[in-house]
Amino acid sequence: MPLFRAPRPAVPATADPDAVSPSAPYRAWKQFGLVLLCGAWVLLGLFGRDPWKTDDAVNFAVAWEMVQRQDFLIPHVAQEPALSVAPLVPWLAATTLSWLSPPLDAPDAGRVAVGVLLVLLLVFTGMAGRELSGRSMRWVPILIVVGTVGLFERSHHLSEEIGLTVAVALALHGVALGLRRPVAGGVVLGTAGGAAFLSAGFMGLAWILVPALILPAFGPSWRHRAYAATLGIGIVVTLALAAAWPWALHQRSPALLDAWLAAERLSAWLPFLPGSAAIEPGWLLKNVLWLAWPALPLVLWMLWIRGRGFNGGLAEAGIVVPAVYAIVLLVSLALMPDPRVIQTMPLAAPLAILAASEVDSLKRGQSAALDWFGILTFGLAAIVLWASWIDAYLDGMSLRVAMLLRDSETGYGPAFNLRAMIAALALTLLWIVLVRPARRSNRRAVLNWAAGMTLIWGLIATIWMPYVNTRRTYEPVARGIALAAPAGSCIERRDVGAAQRAVFYYFSGIVTVPEASPRAAECAALLVQYGRLADGAPRLPGYSIAWQGGRRGDEHERFVLYRKGP
């Protein structure tokens, strides 16, 4: 008996799926509703805000400078080459920016690329789920991705991780397709590898190819010429796509290629190398419990059912392929020096496919617990968001709400925006209608969870977006620095991050000079980024304080502009 089995069809091969579906008369309406839910999740949060730190600001600034310079080869941040920034996501953002601004503001036009990538993420996840587990499983992993807590807000930022997340989903589809169509699967896998490299460098390349290369160790389904052809084609296509950008850099100048290789530090994602930070294995365990919700408990249930040999066991391709990708990514994250939460995003697709495989076998009480936990959690969160907004609109933000939001300033009063209000009310009413008492099912619990996540994100992205943007935008800081800076002179910088330099240049045209640069001696001002300043801005010998400030309500990041002279 072969160790791996082909994916089980959802219905008999000769049967019409509609004929065995009790919801067949309403299938078109349900499909439309699912598309509408996914569309709302994709679009909410893309518009009506400034670039936020860190990744969103840096990638937008790189895309904006590409358009300004008409040079799409070399990433720049505030007029300085930034070859540590992978080019794919800025390329996409620069394309949408150049097409759509005007009429859209530049940040909004750039983030249209995020919407495109999120659509691709959902499509590729659904295609991989269908290829591995049959037609009936194309929507369940998509809904689990929409409901994933780790994608909340972060997935709507311009970041290299969103590009890598899409590439992982595409790789899953390519490997799955390779079992049936080796050549097509290899092309898809190679496209995913090239996209991952252009999104996240060598780490992205490893996250795509290593799982595909070790699959033959997990059974005979991957130990034959067809899969070898898939791998061979995938590697060739990957190398062709991945080599194009470094080759273009070398053609422009060999020094650019050397600078890129120097910026592509393996010690940033491999442990025990010279320059690597200490690993924190406990970080992943502490964070994945909530970042991977609701996929994680569903994956554990799958392991409990399949591990005892039921429903085909753990040997099916629909389990092995996403499991190998998930394990490789988890091990890499556990050993990664100084990991960040946003780097867990590529886990979304493999965990969603694993979680979806045994949703239908959940016991009634288990699915009801997940359903009611989501309804109560999101219902209470929506009540709090609405009540807090109404209170702030009528009387200004109270001290209690400000403390809850970790805001050091009170009295914020939101302006009334008719479009945002209509959207927020529509989302709330649609959620209430969706979760009303009805015929309960395991899949309905997953759907309700995804709808609840969309509701909360939607309320934040509509009625609360102006407030959140005032907390996270750097525009007032950039304007203040520009007004206080001496005219006709450069500004030296100390400890100013790339994201801050990027938005300062976008909002006010501020260009700074590194403290170690020989040009720094010519500058008449010094800009310093501090953390929390309990005792006020420190005095520096030979300088006077010209300006100091930070983002609204943020006491953990302060900027001080010093001018030379008393």
Describe the fold and architecture:
By secondary structure, the protein is mostly helical. 58% of the residues lie in helices and 5% in strands. It contains 20 helices and seven strands. The chain has helices at residues 27-43, 55-69, 88-100, 106-133, 140-146, 160-178, 182-214, 225-252, 254-263, 281-291, 295-307, 317-335, 348-356, 364-395, 399-404, 418-434, 442-461, 465-472, 475-484, 498-508, and strands at 76-77, 80-81, 491-494, 512-514, 525-530, 543-549, 558-564. It has a five-stranded mixed β-sheet. It has a two-stranded antiparallel ribbon with strand order 1-2. β3, α20 (498-508) and β4 (512-514) form a beta-alpha-beta unit. α4 packs parallel to α6 (160-178) and α16 packs antiparallel against α17. The protein is globular and about 80 Å long. Residues 1-22 have low confidence and may be disordered.
Topology:
Layout: H1 27-43, H2 55-69, E1 76-77, E2 80-81, H3 88-100, H4 106-133, H5 140-146, H6 160-178, H7 182-214, H8 225-252, H9 254-263, H10 281-291, H11 295-307, H12 317-335, H13 348-356, H14 364-395, H15 399-404, H16 418-434, H17 442-461, H18 465-472, H19 475-484, E3 491-494, H20 498-508, E4 512-514, E5 525-530, E6 543-549, E7 558-564
Parallel strand pairs: 3-4, 3-5
Antiparallel strand pairs: 1-2, 5-7, 6-7
Helix pairs in contact: 1-4, 2-3, 2-20, 3-4, 4-5, 4-6, 4-12, 4-13, 5-13, 5-17, 6-7, 6-12, 7-8, 7-12, 8-9, 10-12, 11-13, 12-13, 14-17, 16-17, 19-20
